[in-house]
């Protein structure tokens, strides 16, 4: 997480800091002397990372579906969701086009999970900025 806060741009927002840490860890492992240990460790780390990525992606899709269901129920437009996200999380400065990409059947953009949870919480209590 610390690496994600240091790196510029949207790298930190999308959760790719963990990918950078994994890459750094693998490069340290490859500097080791025993190739069998390095290969076995890298396979296990890679498998864990793939499972973690699939799980977090499903969790995010579930949150996005819930967010859009509430938005439809309460009549929120994309611009209102964008404003609500910024009000609840200052780092969630995504464009309207980005938010539209979260609604697609095959989601093409995954915003910061804190932003989505903030929007959900605000919608559930009926707060609108």
Radius of gyration from the alpha-carbon trace, in angstroms: 18 Å
Distance between the termini: 29 Å
Shape: elongated
Give a count of the beta strands, DSSP E runs of length 2 or more.
0
pLDDT below 50 for ≥5 consecutive residues: which ranges?
1-13
The helix/strand order is: HHHHHH
Structure description:
With 129 residues, the protein is mostly helical. It contains six helices and no strands. α2 (17-30) packs antiparallel against α3, α3 packs parallel to α6 and α4 (78-88) packs across α6. The radius of gyration is 18 Å and the shape is elongated. The two termini are 29 Å apart.
Features:
mainly alpha, 129 residues, 69% helix, disordered N terminus
List the helices and strands and how they pair.
Blueprint: H1 2-6, H2 17-30, H3 35-74, H4 78-88, H5 96-101, H6 113-125
Briefly summarize what is shown.
The protein has about 130 residues and is mainly α. It is built from 6 helices and no strands.
